Amino acid sequence: MKHQFRLFWVTAFAAQLAGGVGQAQDAAFGGEIYKTYCAVCHGKAGAGDGMVGELFAQRPANLKHLSRGNGGVFPTERVTDAIYGRGKIAGHGPTKMPIWGGYFMAEALESRAIDPAEAAMITKGRVLSVVAYLETLQEE
Ligand code: HEC
User: Fold this and answer.
1) Helices (H), the chain
2) DSSP string, 46-69
3) How many of the other CB atoms lie within 10 Å of CB of 45?
4) Residue nearest to ligand 1 atom 18, measured at CA
5) Residues 100/90, Cβ–Cβ less than 8 Å
6) For the chain, percent of residues with pLDDT exceeding 70
7) Ligand 1 atom closest to 33 (CA)
8) Residue to substitute in 92, 97, 103 for testing ligand 1 pocket (most ligand atoms within 8 angstroms of CB)
9) Closest CA to 89 of 71, 103, 70
10) Please, are residues 16 and 8 in contact by the beta-carbon 8 Å criterion?
11) pLDDT of residue 74
12) Residue nearest (by alpha carbon) to ligand 1 atom 34
């Protein structure tokens, strides 16, 4: 099962590389990642009301209001950095956000068939897909 799951990522990512997959499909791929890794804290619909998130003193961000909080423009770079876990999030101290860049990287490397360069590409593909998905959640 776990193996199948990993194979899914690799296959899905290879498909992305091969075929100029459009934004919509990236976002669908990102939606799967979101459900698996993010919803527990940020909530099913991204409103920051996930079950685990409720236990935090520092509440997970409402991911539907990222554009609203940035003058109506989706803050692609900030969001990407927040997910990778590099730098800190403006206005917060050290972040309570898990470092997904490192996590996805480690997970990809668990498979011996993958070298670090490939793992880095898979990681980037996953992070960018989830960013594309978050962009679709934005409310005015
Ligand atoms: C263990 C709980 C937890 C999980 C799981 C989690 N987050 Fe977060 N996240 C947080 C918290 C808490 C914050 C609040 C900001 C901070 O800590 O600085 C946050 C902040 C963010 C931000 C920053 C928002 C901003 O205003 O810049 C983004 C983007 C984000 N999370 C996306 C994600 C994505 C995508 C995933 C899944 C890959 C995820 N988070 C999984 C807890 C979590």
Assistant:
1) 2-19, 23-33, 39-42, 76-84, 100-109, 116-136
2) SSS--TTGGG-SSPPP-TTSTTGG
3) 13
4) 95
5) no
6) 76
7) 38
8) 97
9) 70
10) no
11) 97
12) 38
Judge whether 104 and 126 are in contact, CB under 8 Å. Answer: yes
User: 20 falls in which pLDDT band (50, 70, 90)?
Assistant: very low
Q: Cα–Cα distance between 110 and 88 in angstroms, integer?
A: 28
pTM of the model: 0.82
For the purposes of burial, counting CB atoms within 10 Å of the CB of 66, is it exposed (0-12), middle (13-18) or buried (19 or more)? buried
Distance separating alpha carbons of residues 118 and 73, to the nearest angstrom: 32
C-alpha span between 125 and 26 (Å, rounded): 9
Tokens representing 84 are 């990778």
Ligand 1 environment, Cβ below 6 A: 37-38, 40-42, 52-53, 56, 58, 60-61, 63, 66, 78-79, 82-83, 89, 92, 95-98, 100, 130
Looking at the chain, how many residues does it have? 140
